Sequence to fold (917 residues):
Amino acid sequence: MKLNKNINQKNSIFKSWLVILIAILFIVLPFIINAYWVDVLFFFGIYALLGLSLNIVLGEVGLFDLGHMGFMAIGAYTTAILNTYFGIPIMILLPISAIAAGAFAWLVCAPIIHLRGDYLCIVTIGMGEIIRLTLNNNPFGITGGPNGVFGIDFPSLGSIFVVDNSTKFYYYIWLIVGLTIIGLVNLQRSRIGRAWNCIREDEIAAEATGIDVRYYKLLAFVLGAGLAGVAGNVYATKLMMVSPESFNFMESCLLFSIVLIGGMGSIPGVLIGSAAISLFPEFFRTFAQYRMLIFGAAMVAMMIFRPGGIWPRKRGAAEFKSLLMKAGEENG
Amino acid sequence: MKIILEQLLNGLTIGSFYALIALGYSMVYGVMKLINFAHGDLFALGSYLGYTLLVFGSTYVTVTFGIWGGMIAAMLIAAIGIGIAGTLIERIAYRPIYSVGRLPAVVSALGASIVIQNGIMVVWGPRPQAYPSQVVPSVMLNIGGIKITLLQVIILAISFVLMGLLYYIVQKTTFGAAIRACALDRDTAALMGINIETIIFFIFALGPALGGMAGVMVGMYYRKISFTMGWNYGLKAFTATILGGIGNIPGAMLGGLLLGVLEMLGSTYISTAYKDVFVFLVLILVLIFRPRGLLGEKVAEKV
Amino acid sequence: MAKNNNSIETMIRTKQENEEINKINKVVFQTDKLTKKFGGLIAVNNFDLKVSQGQISSLIGPNGAGKTTVFNVVTGIYKADGGKVVFKGEDLAGKKPHQIIKKGIARTFQNIRLFSNMTCLENVMAGQHCRSREGTWSSVLQTPGQRKEELEIKKNAEDRLKQVGLWKYQDELAKNIAYGNQRMLEIGRALASNPDLLILDEPSSGLNDKESEDLIIFLKSLLKEDLTILLIEHDMNVVMGISHWVTVMDEGKKIAEGLPEDVYNNPQVIEAYLGKDEEEEE
Fold:
């Protein structure tokens, strides 16, 4: 028992060192690499945020959501329209985008949340397509049709904090991703996260164990959509424009793959998955037209050789460790 | 009235494409509980195979088989080629991961889809290709004042014959009964002496073969084909599958035809730009009130 | 037959003892003309069931009698087509499962339903969901209150795991432990919700004799916790060994109820289990 404890302790110390090391690496990276790669890493961050948001719905609760880009589109267009037409600052729109996407998710998902598996899957696809097509059709002349909306501001707070170049955007997105990870890890280790996992494992048993399945499924959709809305906000300000084609079905499929390649419900897994999806095409740029071919083949191969994902979530003692340590700090 | 009927026929034509593709989704889903996301791209590949034959082999084919031979040869080539492609995909991308659950198969299917789509792009180029204009003589028929092209008649005839044939095989033959048994309970079916391997081979050959033939017909009907068309048609056909009730053969046919008609009515009476929005809205409404599709049976959860 | 078995004989209370217990205790749970139809089939037909405070009541009957359906209706998984489910004076019909467990009725399933890919400890922790209340934001921010509650949940879960004898498996995934242990884990999960009424659907099925006997002892020990137990059971040794009250069901209807020995010798019950003589010849 004591020996076991020791190993656990060493393990968790090693893990926390690893986390710190990776954090330092992310802080110093922009000083080492050129602006192009800083941008690539920015988009890695966007994918990571989207992956984390989908992971709540797909990974934690096991709901097939293949229209997740629709929520991001709601966030991005909320930002774009309110900023360009009414001049509302981006930083104020950040929470508003999240709330808009979350509220939209609640409205759309409330009547369909009882659908199972593949039926829910096609409805989310349909929802994503409806959003994209509607944006494309320029309703009331506010979405700009296929061209989208132009001239979105940079995020800024007064004149001191202005995010206006690649490096700043890089820090901006990874700060958001970092905070999101902390929040999600906390959620995973709470009764909320447990309730989600129970639903994924066995819906009927979860309901009989006292979990309001409908509420927790909706909660997952609303939180996931809210985070996707945040990603939409950052994405829109980085590109300074939004257009419907950024939110097509293919992108939703890529997000789905991020969660599964990394490992369902695993936060490090999502980071690895989004790195794979966003960095892979960059490394294979020399193969030009063959690179997507290789990419697809890699997806197949990945699932054949590691069906559980690259970094599946480990359960058990290690997870409770940090909770106990924190409680110990409080008591001591 | 005439316009409505003509639109209805146009809708049925498109609907029969969707129905043929939807059958592939539904058969595979019925037995394997797997959404074959690569199916739409197999359909596109079928279209390109037919195109290649009609463009590069047209003189030879016409000389050998006569004027109608080109179309039949193209459809046969597409059916055989895509049937083989379908079984190959099953062997490579799905078979190794059946045992580990359904989600990895979804990603594998998406990967296979990307491979086929980009494979088409590499071989035939990224620009859209045009089908030859004179595969079937362009004759306009006038039946009681309703105008319909000869091509439409042929497409409808072929589609309905194929669907009828499939319906007969699945519902009336012993082999069809074996397929249905597998769809209900694969393990028990195996214990009853049904060779699952044969069934899997059959559904992964026949479903895509139907899709491949639909690909050739779409090529002849619209004349323009592109390597990304698989996604579009695949998505619509999948919608049709769910609309009818997934895993249900008559449901897939009904769903496909209905979707085509809805799309046509939507573009005539609502707006062309919003026709797809209309289609998806109908789908969502149907699922809210009938969570297992139009012909899907309500299954009580065993507790 | 059971009368010849020594161990069983000692377990059965005398008739007088049982009658006395029944007199003292009040009915805490009952169904009133409960009806459930599946299409044309009437699975449960005007069914009345009584469960007294602090007792172990059994619901028995041949296969397909509708016992599990009664449980599913009572716990809200199926919706009743008619009748009442009264618990502590309150009608629970039409309530959802998660609301019913909050009222104090916890259950297990015939074909064990655990959260397979979660650890044993997590399974039991999940059982306390309805007795805890920290929300999303306090969990995201991990407020002191949330941490405190989480530790309490964990401590209670550890106690329950020890109670069902699975402490050493706390970090094992539920799917990786032995069948008998899985049954106990499911009971542990139900107990974690601090129920007043525990409903067990064939708890001894699939257990060997030793495990069954342990189960009987365990269930009896639960009575000390002020718990009432209702169970479906096939194993007559278990039924006769621990029940204070037995209700017999056949084809959706109640055909007999009473003290275990009375029911055991009831000709109607024997007929339901073994069939009539003429039927046997066919």
Q: What stands out?
A: The longest strand of chain B covers residues 140-143. The two ends of chain B are 52 Å apart (CA to CA).
